[in-house]
Amino acid sequence: MRTSFVGRTRFRAVFAVPFVVLTFTALALAADWKPTRSINFVVPYAPGGGSDVLGRNIVSVINNGKLCPVSILVENKPGGAATIGTTSVAQAKGNVHMLLTFISGQVSSPIVVGKGAATYQDLTLICGLAIDEQLIVVKADSPFKTIQDIVAAAKQRSLSIGGTATGQEDQLCNRLFEKTANIKLRYAPFNSGGECLTAVMGGHVDMIWANPSEFVPQWEAKMVRPVVVAKEMRLPGLPDVPTFKESGFDVTFKMFRGIAAPPGIPPETALYYENMMKSVSDSSMWKEKYLKQFMLSSAWMDSKEFRKFVVQSEGTFKGILVELGLVK
């Protein structure tokens, strides 16, 4: 028995050394590189939307924790269902001073747009940070109190619903809802969640798809009202808002929020940004001022995990887009 124990001990030691060497090498690579000038942080959506809130909160956490030796400047580049801003980063090959907010819609949009639009394969995926929630939101004085009210009305007359862009998360969720409820809604695409919110408050659409980060201030001001959430369980911050499933409709959706960079950057640069974002994810400010305040779920994924998740999401999105008739 004693011999057997020693044998197992030696066996473990053989495999422990490479791990230590790899860990040391990774840390050394990250320590070998630091940004030398300001970083251009591209948000491929208009101000006021969920990606804009994401980008600006990341910068606030980085500045507060002094996590980066240079300034980070947020630049909104909306248009083309996020393909304009995303493609601009993909074309900046080797630019080590550029980052990009990267969400589910930037996976589905290129599938719809086709040739010429940058895909995740044209970028360096850095990390995944959080899972956001999709809700249907109405104006505070809307006659629709429940999702059952909306379904009943949609079977009697035409209703409009706003969402961010064509072929992105909002329209994907909308298709899932239409299919399970056996209804058809007029989908109105906008450039950002902020524009959607303006449209529903102005009475231009009957309802919108929105993330909490896009409507929480207006909800607190009693200007809008969330009706239902596409999540397995109710949100702790919105305990009175039921899920689709408990309302009798099989609709759930996991919208990711992460970070990417241009293609062709050195491994040490990618690792530096990954480590910096991990520090953001671990900070109390991030957890309290972003995740908790805007009701997101923490979902840290390193570059390899994030890429795997993105590839899986692409397969799911393609199936829904075919149903919508947006791709063949």
Secondary structure layout:
Layout: H1 2-31, E1 39-43, H2 50-65, E2 72-76, H3 83-90, E3 98-103, H4 105-113, E4 124-132, E5 135-139, H5 147-154, E6 160-164, H6 169-181, E7 186-190, H7 193-201, E8 207-210, H8 212-220, E9 224-229, E10 255-261, H9 267-282, H10 284-292, E11 297-301, H11 303-324
Parallel strand pairs: 1-2, 1-3, 6-7, 6-8
Antiparallel strand pairs: 3-10, 4-10, 4-11, 5-8, 5-9
* CATH class category of the largest domain: Alpha Beta
Proportion of strand residues: 15-25%
Weakly predicted, low-confidence segments: 1-17, 19-24
The named CATH superfamily of the largest domain = Bordetella uptake gene, domain 1
| β-strand number | 11
Give the tally of structural domains. 2
Order of helices and strands: HEHEHEHEEHEHEHEHEEHHEH
Helix content: 40-55%
According to CATH, the fold-level topology of the largest domain is: D-Maltodextrin-Binding Protein, domain 2
The whole-angstrom Rg is: 22 Å
> What spatial form do the alpha-carbon principal axes imply?
globular
**Strands ordered across the widest β-sheet:** 2-1-3-10-4-11
End-to-end separation: 64 Å
Give me the secondary-structure category.
alpha/beta
Oligomer state of the chains in this structure: single chain
Largest sheet: 6 strands, mixed
- Write down the overall mean pLDDT: 91
Number of DSSP helices?
Answer: 11
